[in-house]
Records
---
Amino acid sequence: MLNKIRRRLGLKFFISYFVVILVGIIVLISATEFTVPSAFDRHLAEMTEAMGPSAESLERDLFDNFRNAVNESLIISSAAAFIAAVLVSIFVTRQVVAPIRGIMEASQYIAEGHYDERVKLPDGVDHSDLDELGQLSVSFNQMTLQLEKGESLRKQLIGDIAHELRTPLSTIKGSLEGLIDGILPATNDTYHQVYQEADRLQRLVNDLQDLNRVESSAYQLDLAPVDIRRLIEKISKRLDLQFIEKQVRLSLSLSPTLPFVLGDEDRLTQVFVNLIGNSLQYTPAGGVVEITAQLDKNEISITISDNGIGIDSEHLPHIFTRFYRVDKSRSRAGGGSGIGLTIAKHLVESHGGVIKAASSGVGHGSTFSIRLPVMA
Ligand code: ADP
């Protein structure tokens, strides 16, 4: 019984009301037993004095009847108070215990892995008008929504990785089977093809490791003053040959008086190599990639524009999402994993900067702009 009470909030409410009423009744009974007789005697003594000796038997009769009347009303009011205790405890239990029980049941369901579970909220009531328990339910639902999102991201990530690994692995396996069965000639070309796929796998794994690091903030920026103009010139020199080979012109328009940025040079290099490399990859021969850098208030504004294939407006909002590729077959064939821009965004933001993409549409080129705060 004690255990049952301990586990039921409703029973506790009922007992607390019952105890209050019981104490009230005991106080009333004690009052009628001990203080009422003496008060009654005192008042009647004054009355009998005025009425003479015949009033003595009348006094006893009167007192007995008075006491019976008081006891009768006590019994009726006790019964009414008891019914009130039951009704009030049922009402309070509904108001307090039901939402708590709702949260308890939902949390048990979520613990079993059902992240779509929500606590039912009263219909047509604005969330700000809810009491503390209602607010708790709202917060609980927000928490479960985040859990659900996290879980679906996790599932999607595993699916994406499996998908990304499958293509190069099946190509390697197919080529090796061809070699074993003697269908494919054991030439340099065949070995080169297998090597390229293995290389793609390695790049993908490296990208994934990088992505994991930036997404879980498990990396440290080695901060130092960085000369953005010098950095872009250095990267351009490194990529020069690739531009010449693809017959794409690289044009720089960098302000000569740029202040320093407090940043990690290696990480910023990674961002610029990715963006310039993308522009080169998605710009056909004869095209131009232009890099500009200038001071704008207390930020350095850098743009990397190309007149290449462009990005459709429907894809623009997603290109910083991991594994997102506009043309899946083309960028995969080019070795792209759709992770580069996600990493670039994380890195720019970790420098207190902003990265944006713009394009006037397919065939009209793309512009990636970065703003980095200048060093204080
Ligand atoms: P990937 O490694 O596939 O290039 P990114 O994350 O660097 O991955 O880019 C994501 C997608 O954004 C690319 O697959 C491509 O479709 C699109 N994209 C990026 N840069 C450009 C650009 N300069 N021109 C056109 N499309 C681009």
---
Amino acid sequence: MKEKKISIYPGTFDPITLGHIDIIHRASKIFDEVIVTLAINPSKTPLFSTDERLMMIHDAIDDFENVRVVEFDGLLVDFAQKNSAKVIIRGLRAISDFEFEFQMALMNRKLANEITTVFLMPNEKYTYLNSTVVKNVTKFNGNVDSFVTKLVATELTKKFNSR
Ligand code: ADP
């Protein structure tokens, strides 16, 4: 039987944006399975808790049959190996992403040579979008409806109103 092509898409997703979803959509058409990997990164202090981020990702990937989400802390290549994933997906928006991504991809290759990092480019309308921009716009009551799902927009408003 042919081996299933499994990929993982790691990130902080604080919160998930339409840019992330664009990448997930592209990956889901290339790979048999995509595992969105929610990184519990101790060096970052996210606005949303792990459960909140998971809930927003679940809602966003509901329509994709071959995509699931898992939370994870530890070494990414260990997680990939345990899940028989040979590919790490990352999004590349601009040159500014390159240096960090390049370093991480080469480090992961050094740690696990059989795992390949694949970069996907989102639709150009999402190239300037990231989770920080979305949080900043909401903080000052700007409208983020064209950057995030309805649920994420509601959760963002709730979060800033409760502060
Ligand atoms: P991390 O802390 O791992 O960078 P993020 O949630 O910020 O987590 O990003 C996860 C991945 O999604 C990264 O590869 C990032 O480049 C990519 N990404 C983030 N925003 C976008 C976007 N608007 N379009 C395409 N890719 C994106």
